[in-house]
Design a protein that fits this description.
rod-shaped; mainly alpha; 0% strand; 41 residues
């Protein structure tokens, strides 16, 4: 929430604001990691 207040102070707006430590982001990163690992990368 504090980040959104900072952004609004600079008149910056987002359609969607997500956090890098959100559950959805962690799941996406894990999927990418497992895919790379499975391809021996």
């Amino acid at each position: 929430k504090s980040h959104q207040e900072d952004f609004s102070g600079f008149d910056i707006k987002f359609d969607h604001y997500g956090s890098t430590n959100s559950k959805a982001n962690k799941e996406t990163c894990n999927e990418i990691w497992e895919s790379l690992k499975g391809a021996d990368m």
